[in-house]
Design goal:
- The structure is a homodimer.
- The first copy, chain A, is an alpha/beta fold.
- Chain A folds into 2 domains: about 15-180 and about 270-345, 2-Layer Sandwich (BirA Bifunctional Protein, domain 2); about 355-420, Rossmann fold.
- The first copy, chain A, is built from 14 helices and 14 strands.
- In chain A, a hairpin with a 2-residue loop joins strand 9 and strand 10.
- The two termini of chain A are about 50 Å apart.
Chain lengths: ~425, ~425
């Protein structure tokens, strides 16, 4: 019986042209982040089902690929629910595994620990264009630094990387979950429904003020609260120093130092920028994951809907493993998105090694072939990429194909050496 | 409830020190193999259960981590056997996915196609020291070249890589599945039990001639066959040119050109060697996988039991997907094994960038901190790795730890600049 040629639903294969760009981007990521003292680590792709379903992952927990128990443990005839069949699953992000890793190894790791992770994660989303069920994430995290040096360095490193990859003119938006909360308190939304309010606010740039008002009303929030909230945004928009305005407006609701903290981050990032970008305080920035506890940030680019990077502070997640609170802050770049943008821009990798093809007439005797291969080995040892291949009947077509693969030089070898 | 700190059974995490070596080895692999014209590709870690269980994988098919069906498709109450619960699983090697990939994309790929794959695979083996359930494989394959140029290049590339990684004095053993078969025919073992004979022969270097005789007898093979077989090995050992001896001895049983083919490979590889190693013909080399159809090869190193690389020709596997026969030949290096050897040898990565740490007194004001960070950014843009971190109370201990992480230079920044 013939086997199935297609990859499984929603997952995809990476062809040589894209793979070159991915390898290049990964190379730049490692180089740049290592320059900031981030250390690569790796965790297994498989995590225990108990950890994956521990409510850290929000909506992603509905999208887990579960791995079946094995042998006698798999007793499906007596299973009462799905989770009786599985004992592990594929990770849906790199943050949960990092938190577990850190809890497991903290004693042997530098303090603070600056981790770099690049690797695949899996989510069983409905297949659609540009969304795949296996995709790479690329995270940097600083564990154990309570100061905003963590935020500053994460934003510095990420913006420097984007600059290295040729991007400029992008926008870093920052906010703080505590400001969101204070705004909701000030506006007198009911505390139990804060997250709902945030989700609607988050849509401001997509549906506009009128859209936000409509959705808040439809959700049944009081007119007074909606009014107080929007009044505040209006004043904010007209203020000269948005962060200072919020600090004053929300004093009494805000933890002390919250706006000063943001101000320092904004100033230091701006003053040490290596690339052309702008940093703005955006009090409507929400970020989906509920594990964030303080600063949150996101990078957007004109013309590419959605963000190319996002992150924030999550000071409570690691404590769930250890019982001991450990502060943490991370920034994740949208690796797949960046690769897609570069592919669409027909990005050319700078300064690649020369690529040369040796075309050998078919039927060449073993001794001559050896000589040719020795020549190839010598060229390689001097840094040239040399492809040794049989000459096709249609040499012109073959060369055209090789050109498409990036080969710019050839050498032809014939059975009769006089032909060369 | 506290979460589980340990990774799932049999899988492991990779700490910074090992990760550095892994990254270095992957870098050398990509560099060296690209030099030979191999092109990186990637396939999903998940494959359909039908393909995984198609008898291509031999014993590995018993070790598959199966992924549960989702939603309505998962109907465990009416499941008759395990496979009714799963529709996919984690790949156990990179050869099956490559064969599927090639069948799917052959029209858009160069001919022959020279693929490089590096990635994790999973096998649910009984956990034991040095054996993990997730591990990396690293394969090069040449698809669509029926000539022994494929074998020659695969061995050249692999031995060159090992040389680049600092290894020398290793042994490449080669054989041909067709010689194994001819030997068994010549000895008059029953055709239906050839594979059993091969498995016992394969142990020759471990259990010696007497051990092989004992096991063959215990398995019930005829004394005459055992005698004919061992007589042949004795003559082979005394012959000056082992390949030529086998060619003569087995003429009538061997496909024409089989030994000449091996002879050419041996000669060309030896003559173009870039590293110090020896190549030997070993008629007892078997290689486990039944999909091999011709040449097989393996690299061993003195003092490291087991092989560090293995491969061969498998001309029939891709045809199982397409119905159209496509010849193929591959070589896989034991990535995990090589990393372990380098770790054991306390391998030092050559020519790393300078690593410098900036130690900043705690409580430094925001402006001064900005200045320090700007200085760090400038040094980074000149290629230095700069870690910016808060100074600990015990500075001596902190520096000792940083030294262990490879930092060789420091600079200290105090609140009172006169202290510097």
């Amino acid at each position: 019986m013939a086997l199935n040629k297609k990859p499984v639903t929603g997952m995809r294969e990476i062809l040589p042209a894209e793979m070159q760009i991915r390898d290049y981007v990964i190379g730049r990521i490692k180089e740049t982040y290592k320059g900031f003292g981030f250390t690569p680590i790796e965790t297994p792709c498989v995590e225990s089902i108990a950890n994956l379903c521990s409510k850290q992952g929000g909506e992603n927990e509905k999208l887990i690929f579960k791995i079946m128990k094995r042998g006698e443990k798999l007793n499906w005839k007596e299973a009462e629910n799905e989770n009786d069949l599985a004992d592990s699953g594929l990770r849906y992000d790199l943050t949960l595994p990092l938190s577990r890793f850190y809890s497991n190894h903290a004693a042997n790791l530098p303090k603070p620990f600056k981790a770099l992770q690049i690797g695949p994660v899996w989510r069983a989303e409905r297949p659609q264009k540009g969304r795949y069920r296996q995709f790479y994430q690329c995270d940097i995290d600083i564990l154990g630094d309570p100061t905003n040096m963590a935020e500053i360095e994460l934003i510095q490193a990420t913006t420097t990387l984007l600059g290295e990859l040729g991007f400029s003119g992008f926008t870093v938006r920052i906010n703080d979950r505590r400001i969101l909360k204070a705004m909701a308190q000030y506006s007198q939304f009911p505390e139990a429904r804060f997250e709902e309010v945030f989700v609607i606010l988050d849509k401001l740039d997509k549906i506009g003020t009128s859209g936000v008002i409509r959705e808040l009303k439809e959700a049944g929030f009081a007119d007074l609260a909606i009014e107080r909230c929007l009044q505040m945004f209006e004043e904010f928009n007209q203020s000269e120093d948005g962060i200072a305005y919020m600090g004053e407006k929300l004093s009494g609701f805000l933890e002390e130092g919250t706006t000063e903290n943001l101000q320092q981050i904004a100033e230091c990032v701006t003053q040490t920028a290596q690339t052309d970008f702008q940093l703005v305080f955006d009090p409507t920035l929400v970020r989906g994951m509920s594990y964030y506890t303080g600063t949150i940030f996101e990078i957007g680019m004109e013309g590419f809907g959605g963000s190319v990077a996002g992150g924030g502070r999550y000071d409570e997640m690691i404590g769930k493993f250890t019982g001991v609170q450990t502060c943490a802050c991370g920034f994740s770049i949208g690796f797949e998105r960046i690769v897609t943008i570069l592919m669409d821009q027909q990005f050319r990798i700078p300064s690649q090694a020369a690529k040369k093809a040796y075309l050998i007439e078919k039927g060449m005797c073993s001794e001559r072939l050896c000589e040719v291969m020795r020549e190839a080995q010598n060229e390689r040892s001097q840094g040239t990429q040399v492809l040794v291949t049989w000459m096709n009947k249609n040499k012109k077509f073959q060369k055209k194909q090789l050109e498409e693969e990036g080969y710019t030089e050839w050498k032809e070898f014939y059975i009769n050496p006089l032909r060369q």
